[in-house]
Amino acid sequence: MSKKARIEKDSMGEIEVPAEALWRAQTERARQNFHISNLRFPARTVAALAHIKAAAAQANADLDLLTEEQAAAIIDAADRIAQNPDLDHFPLDIFQTGSGTSTNMNMNEVLAETVHRAKGPTVHPNDHVNCSQSSNDVIPTSIQVSCVLALHDEWLPAIVHLQRAIEEKAQSLEDVVKTGRTHLMDAMPITMAQELRAWSTQLHHCQLNINEVCERLRALPQGGTAVGSGINAPQAFRQQFCQHLSERTEQYFHPATNAFAGISGQELSLQLAGALNSCGAVLMKISNDLRWMNSGPLAGLGEIELKALQPGSSIMPGKVNPVIPEAVAMVAAHLAGSYQTVATAAQQGNFQLNVMLPLIAYHLIESIEISAKAMRSLADDAIADFNVKHDRLEEALARNPILVTALNSVIGYNEAAKIAKRAYQEQRPVIDVAEEMTDLSRAELETLLDPKKLTHGGIPGGD
After folding, report:
1. Host H or E run for residue 139
2. Could you tell me if 13 and 1 are in contact, meaning their C-beta atoms sit under 8 angstroms apart?
3. Active site residue 254
4. Which residues of the chain have pLDDT under 50?
5. What CA–CA distance (Å, rounded) separates 394 from 79?
């Protein structure tokens, strides 16, 4: 045996474990078995597991299944992990046993070893730390708890921050009129504020979606133990556990009405992945709108100028690219990929247990964290301080033949179409062509074709 190793035992016998490691035999077996990737459970999931173990310990003490001394020792060890997860003690690959049993035992062993090294009471990883629990209810519960906390702490504040940045920018652009576009082709005018507020409303839809899923995630299957029936856990455990967990996290959790569903199914995780993917679609739309509006600066639309953040080319001097929208667009693509992964994993609820829980846990937390950071980056480094190129907007607007749409109710669609075609062909302002081809006076046309008035909707020239 190496001087840097110690011997640990489990139901399968003895195994060498690194001397400094806080884990024991079962974790070591998993560490040696699973070395497929460098992906690990996120810190948030590890912290959620620690909260779960602490809440379970207190519930078990309430129900006289642990002594107060044992519970206090487990809670003290769990508190340290929850407050500052040291991932060096949680080395296991995401690609492991589908229930996450290895990671549940990793936490159980680390807590037991921590208590042992602190010369605390006798605490066994299975008999005490895992009392009234199974990996089969702990890991699904950890997914839900970690996601609720991540949404509350990171994602929801980030989307509010982005909406606020958009609204503040929109308020400064109320009177900026530009050419609208449908099919990437010139359309009726809009204000830039209207364009930005459409983004904000789309984000609000995403926020509502996330809030609804988040409420459903608060119903926990903990206490269902192995298959959902709650074998080896007192009836009162579930309620006691949720009460202590709610107090610890300052977030409300309650027992699921059907623990079987929470252990065998992962449709709530899929709903969350879908809601995050929907937000990704909105972030992609905003990012691409910014890229198009910023395109040029000479040969593109050139409607806005994003803040210059870094050189854009290793060969073309002076080139500056829209790096933040591009980065956020890649996040959106990543969210779509994660959604597909969770969708496939959520289908693997065979009989009484889903067997892709670690993969689901990883992708959900990663999606929450990167989308939250992307929204803040988009707000602070792209939207807050882009400059509007008024000359380009006004030039394009004055030459936009689609303004003739405003004359439909006066001269009819067919006559308006003739004016538009001639304006296109001759590259002239539509008002000049309309003055020649209709009996309307210049003053009437100026009223009917006023781009700013057209952004208000209704029938041009009417009330």
Report:
1. helix 135-150
2. no
3. no
4. none
5. 61
Q: How far is Cα 11 from Cα 8, in angstroms, rounded to an integer? A: 11
Phi/psi at 307 (5° precision): -60, 130
Q: Can you give the pLDDT at residue 414?
A: 97
In the set 2, 11, 183, 314, the catalytic residue is: 183
- In angstroms, the Cα distances linking 83 to 69, 165, 248, 402 are 21, 31, 11, 60
Burial 381-401 (b: 16+ CB within 10 A, else e): bbbeebebbeebbeebbebbb
User: Which residue, chain included where needed, has tokens 């474990």?
Assistant: 17
- Among the listed residues 37, 172, 313, 441, the single catalytic one is 313
Q: List, in order, residues 6 or more apart from 380 with CB less than 8 Å away.
A: 165
Tokens 């159980």 belong to which residue?
108
Task: Give burial (CB, 10 Å; 0-12/13-18/19+) of 28.
Answer: buried
Say whether 390 is catalytic: no
Tokens of 219: 């119903």
Q: Which residue has the tokens 């530009």?
A: 178
Task: Name the pTM for this structure.
Answer: 0.96
List the alpha helices (DSSP H) in 250-294. Answer: 259-264, 267-294
